[in-house]
Amino acid sequence: MADDDEIKEYRWETGYEKTWEEIQEDDAGLIASSIHDIIQKAKRKRQEAKKKGTRLGMMRHIYIILDCSEAMSMPDLKPTRFINAIRMLQLFVEEFFDQNPISQLGIILLKNKRAEKVADLAGNYKNHIKIFQNLTKSTLTGEPSIQNGLDLALQTLKMIPTHASREVLMILGSLTTCDPGDIEETIQSLKTENIRCSVISLSAETRIMRHLTVETSGIYSAILDETHFKDQLFQHIEPLQATNTQECSLIKMGFPHGVVQDASSKKDQSMMSLCMCHLESNSETRNLSITGYFCPQCQAKYCELPVECVVCGLTLVLAPHLARSYHHLFPILNFIEVPNQQQSTHCFGCQKQFQDSDKHLYKCPKCEKHYCVDCDMFIHDTLHTCIGCSSVPQRPQMNNYDNNRIFNNVIL
Predict the structure, then answer these.
(1) Which of 224, 267, 320, 380 is the most core-located residue (most Cβ within 10 A)?
(2) What does the pLDDT look like over 194-243, one tens digit per residue?
(3) What's the 3-state SS for 354-408?
(4) What does the pLDDT look like over 364-378, one tens digit per residue?
């Protein structure tokens, strides 16, 4: 009852509360300008909610638990809940690894009161997308067991080092669960291991799922439609704020070089080997190859990066993987919302001409260029760099003596 008292109102009760009071007719008797203004506010709501100067968990280890019970065959999301969720998750996985290249993701399915792990924690998004594509042919039967799914994820995540972020994202369509024991014990174990659990409900909110997210500092959301489903799912792409118990430590990484050999020579044919990532797979994918990445510490071979070496435990990445994580450490500032007083006739990003319906413009606090709301969201969510700031001429470069001195200091 204490948790129910803390929750005064639900998300769907406040998201569009009394929006009819904001809709007003313009001089022509149309309401398009008011609706356009509401859409703009909804797009910027998530961006303005981000806190500055927070420590983020950039090395993320997340399990996606997908409900495959009979409840996912409901056609309220076209064509069914399950097919719609599969399509959304394919987009989510591709965007997730683009924004979090040094993270790992796994997949767990719930059906027939059991939990099945179909993908271990890995950093190759192509394999995960293939798994989701193959799941479209699977049958939806029985009831889910939330406790079995959480216990299966807990067995792997509790072995992850404490400097990494441990997360569980559950896509749930059923309102019931068939558990073998007390789920409260599982929730307390997740809380003890600092595993953050988030739930997206495709039907309605349930008390036990709300309790799970509150205890583990996760995010709970019940969707309204397909657009809202994508919006709630994609908010889990960016790293969440690190917990107080998450350690700060230096991480040893290896940067292997890709080796490509000529298969025409006999010498190179004798160097064909099997990569460690496919060593325990079935016979169809266990093919010898002459290309790959070799661990600089133990010389173990891998076909794709990033990956954690199974022999010596060294994290193997490429330089672009760390470079793509740079924007999480130093995000660009939020643009200032200013009223449209004809400061600029065109958006500096897309060159769209501002109309009377654009009541607000968005100005960069550094270069003072004006953008539309779509360019504002694109710059902060995808591009991660201001177009105006990057087009401003840089300061005069230093002479060769200063450049060589700084280069030598960095190398040393």
Answers:
(1) 380
(2) 999 999 999 989 999 999 999 999 999 988 888 888 888 988 988 776 66
(3) CCCCCCEEEECCCCCCEECHHHHHHHHHHHCCCHHHHHCCCCCCCCHHHHHHHHH
(4) 988 989 998 888 888
- In whole angstroms, give the CA distance from residue 68 to residue 73: 9
Token couple for 37:
């203004």
Name the token pair of 50: 């981000």
Element (H, E) at 109: strand 104-111
Report pTM.
0.72
Q: Where are the alpha helices (DSSP H) in 112-225?
A: 125-135, 146-157, 183-192, 207-215
Token pair belonging to 80 = 């069914």
Q: How far apart are CA 57 and CA 248, in angstroms?
A: 10
Q: What one-character-per-residue DSSP string does 151-182 give?
A: HHHHHHHTTS-TTSEEEEEEEE--S----SS-
